[in-house]
Specification:
This protein has 13 helices and twelve strands. By secondary structure, it is an alpha/beta fold. It has two domains: about 130 residues, Alpha-Beta Complex (Aspartate Aminotransferase, domain 1), CATH 3.90.1150; about 240 residues, Aspartate Aminotransferase, domain 2. It has a seven-stranded mixed sheet, sandwiched between helices. The structure holds pyridoxal-5'-phosphate. Pyridoxal-5'-phosphate binds next to helix 3.
């Protein structure tokens, strides 16, 4: 099997699974209990929080563990909206966000909040000028992703952070795709809140974190016991938290190597596909994109049919986001960057990690050529 769908999820590293196992077996004590093994688990969770905080230049008390990226995103939208509603009811986001953001925004609209969904240019980047023009007196939050999951495009988050600060709005970035792939420092970016998810950086599924800058007003997500400083109740998933911290540590240790390798491999892949197959177009920004992300739209084919042919040859790829698979609607991201419905349906996303070799890519390109040819001739 050649796995080229790392934006959907990643294989957990061996060290991650090994670090987790003791907490699934003998170290099962509830961290809130009063005996030694429990206190030890509480201590380990604190260490993990410290590890995660260091990777983004934050303080330990600014990190909250969640069940993943969707939870962190929902928490930000609802928690910030509800805690700041007397300051205003306007929120700015983009048309290309993950559904965890978009659908939470739609929910808030029903409650009377007003949301502006910024469009993007054909590369998938927002306009800073338009952002500034959109900010109102009653804008409480700007939520813009750091990197897009379908087309890999990076948003100008540092400039967005500066603009948000100048206008006194909070800035949240969904960094689920960027965290672990590119360096992030929340102070440098000027982010007040940031979401990440362990399974996107070789950690376990069902675990993520939210960074909340000290002093930001946000309502608790889950009421119950006092866990996560009374903000997100529920007995901690110690094993997953340990796995996520291990994955975060490994990701930051190997980051520079992976950036170089994946950028080279991605450029090799895009270069060969464009040269050797006619009627193929890159989607997303050519340079300002995640190192391991390549995405295309292909003339005269259906993305879904192509995926089936690739799958028959042992290749796992995607037509866009995992969440839209099985849904025949064209991707909202590809529509937002200006593709027609028919063009958007011919999309292909290939997301590599450091395990993918040039040999794998060569095999993939041969199969891709054959598959496109057979679809076009059928
Ligand atoms: C995967 C993803 C999410 C959702 O994260 P989960 O941990 O799967 O809930 C949110 N935003 C982006 C950009 C993603 O890629």
């Amino acid at each position: 099997m050649i796995y080229l769908d790392n934006a959907a999820t990643t294989q957990p590293k061996k060290q991650v699974v090994e670090a987790m196992l003791p907490y699934l077996e003998e170290k099962y004590a509830n961290p809130s209990s009063m005996y030694e093994p429990a206190i030890e688990n509480q201590r380990i969770i604190g260490e993990c929080r410290q590890t995660i905080a260091r990777t983004i230049g934050a303080e330990e008390k600014e990190i909250y563990f969640t069940s993943g990226g969707s939870e962190a995103d929902n928490w930000v939208l609802k928690g910030v909206a509800h805690a700041n509603r007397e300051r205003g009811k306007h929120i700015i986001t983009t048309q290309i966000e993950h559904h965890a953001i978009l659908n939470a925004c739609h929910y808030l609209e029903e409650e009377g909040f007003q949301i502006t969904y910024l469009g993007t240019d054909q590369n998938g980047q927002i306009s800073l000028r338009e952002l500034e023009d959109t900010i109102r007196e009653d804008t409480i939050l700007i939520s813009i992703m750091a990197a897009n999951n379908e087309i890999g495009t990076l948003e100008p988050v540092r400039e967005i952070g500066r603009i948000a600060k100048e206008h006194g709005c909070l800035f949240h970035t969904d960094a689920v795709q960027m965290y672990g792939q590119l360096p992030i420092n929340v102070k440098f970016l000027g982010a007040d809140l940031m979401s990440a998810s362990a399974h996107k950086f070789s950690g376990p599924r069902g675990c993520g974190f939210l960074y909340v800058r000290e002093g930001v007003k946000i309502c608790p997500l889950i009421h119950g016991g006092g866990q996560e400083r009374h903000m997100r109740a529920g007995t901690e998933n110690t094993a997953a938290i340990v796995g996520m911290a291990e994955a975060a540590k490994l990701a930051s240790q190997t980051m520079q190597y992976r950036i170089r390798r994946e950028t080279y491999h991605r450029n090799y892949l895009i270069g060969r596909v464009l040269r050797e197959i006619s009627g193929v177009h890159v989607t997303g920004h050519r340079k300002q994109r995640l190192p391991g992300s390549a995405s295309f739209w292909i003339e005269g084919i259906e993305g879904e049919s192509l995926l089936i042919l690739l799958d028959m040859k042992g290749i796992c790829a995607s037509a866009g986001s995992a969440c839209t698979t099985g849904n025949t609607e064209a991707s909202h991201v590809l529509r937002a960057i200006g593709l027609e419905e028919e063009q958007a349906k011919g999309s292909l996303r290939v997301t590599i990690n450091e395990n993918v070799s040039i040999k794998d890519l060569d095999y993939f390109i041969e199969i891709l050529k054959e598959s496109i040819e057979s679809l076009r001739n059928s």
